[in-house]
Amino acid sequence: MKGRVNWVEGNTFVAESNSGHAVVMHAAPAPDAPTIAPSPMEYVLLGAGGCTAFDVVHILKRGRHDVQGCDLRLEAERATEDPKVFTKIHYHFIVSGRNLKPDTVERAIALSAEKYCSASIMLEKTATITHDFEIIDLG
């Protein structure tokens, strides 16, 4: 895997993946200052969320469960001192579909957390990661 990050101006950078996709990153110059794009650490959190949400949907679909949606809400805390690593991350999954069983959804989330989601497993080195879920039956 390769990538490139190019400084544009001020606190703005453009990152490009090896597959040719680009994203803008911007770090706030002060704690409450407005930004024009997510910060690099926000992308880390969103990347981990994308990784685990992808896993959960994939696992449920592979098991032939009628999953129709997955909305993942993320909350994180960071250390107050440098390096300001994530110390806590909570994933709240809202999974929708027909006839989804709680134990099946819980197992898909556990498989992602314990085996498949590289990003979450890596972040677990500094952060306590928790999760919960709710199911919306479209049925």
Automatic annotation (TrEMBL):
<dbReference type="InterPro" id="IPR015946">
    <property type="entry name" value="KH_dom-like_a/b"/>
</dbReference>
<protein>
    <submittedName>
        <fullName>OsmC family protein</fullName>
    </submittedName>
</protein>
<dbReference type="Pfam" id="PF02566">
    <property type="entry name" value="OsmC"/>
</dbReference>
<dbReference type="InterPro" id="IPR003718">
    <property type="entry name" value="OsmC/Ohr_fam"/>
</dbReference>
<dbReference type="InterPro" id="IPR036102">
    <property type="entry name" value="OsmC/Ohrsf"/>
</dbReference>
